[in-house]
Amino acid sequence: MPVFALDPSVAIGATLADDMAACRTAIRAGSKSFYAASMLLPPSVRVSAYGLYAFCRLSDDAVDEAEGHRGAAVARLERRLTAALAGRPDNHPADRALAEVIARHAIPEALPRALLEGLAWDAQGRRYDTLSDLAAYAARVAGAVGAMMTLVMGVRDGHALARACDLGVAMQFTNIARDVGEDARAGRLYLPRAWLDEAGVDERAFLVDPRLSPGLQRVVAGLLTAADGLYARAEPGIAALPLRCRPAIRAAGTIYAEIGRAVEANGLDSVTRRARVSGARKAGLLTGALLPTGRRRGRLSAPPLPETAFLVEAVLSHAVPAAHCPPPWWDFSGQVVRVLDLIEALEERDAFRRSAPS
User: Which helix (H) or strand (E) holds 167?
Assistant: First the structure.
């Protein structure tokens, strides 16, 4: 029985509200970290986010659970996506919700197609020689989702999209570092082969009998370091989002980064232990995400990663109907960013005054 499942009783004749409610229920059961962070989103954005993530998660689970028939599972997902893009989704809450989200937010076809391409790589059992090769995979299964979420929040600026892709790749690197043993026992190994060779880890022997070793610990530590660099690169992009969306994205990033800290606290043992962030710690991080932040690291204008550039270009080259175009005042490279930064600075000052002893 899949961990992530949508209520099949929500069928033809269901309203959009019914579909989104089904997606929300499924996300709450199957993706607790995303669900927790999503509670900080404005309601209108949150509803679309549930529809988007429901299809992404459903797709991931469909391939994982297909075992020897993963290629066929990807082909079925391709057909379902084609139908949703054409406005004729399959009779399933996630498909109908996806069709609505794609149409409402003018999401280019290349983004959800990239996600399914990454799942096809999983179905093929593809391995990754270098960190760049792994980033290309992460761009598809996570960076594409970050780009789609940015569109759901009403942002089509290239710099903001690049930072969203950075965050998605960082999160995927964290997931891979956390799940080394679990993946190996399922016959999967995502860690860069060049790193494993350098660390003296025989990948074939490891897949047969996953064991912790100092070399493997160094590889996991290196991947977490790469993730931390991308979290820092992504951070300036939060300021390019609508003010009410910033806490949720900040929370998502900090919760996932904390998973990396939990891996470290476990002695970099991702083979016999699974790193977890407690509910109390998540609550603290969510609360912290609501507070004004200090100086941001990195540059909003940094170019996209070579592995994610195709996602940014797909959005920038996508013809957007006038109804989807942001109003003229929504100029991320100009005055509005300065105004939003001023608001955040004023909030920081007010928060400092309230916390100072009288």
Answer: helix 158-178
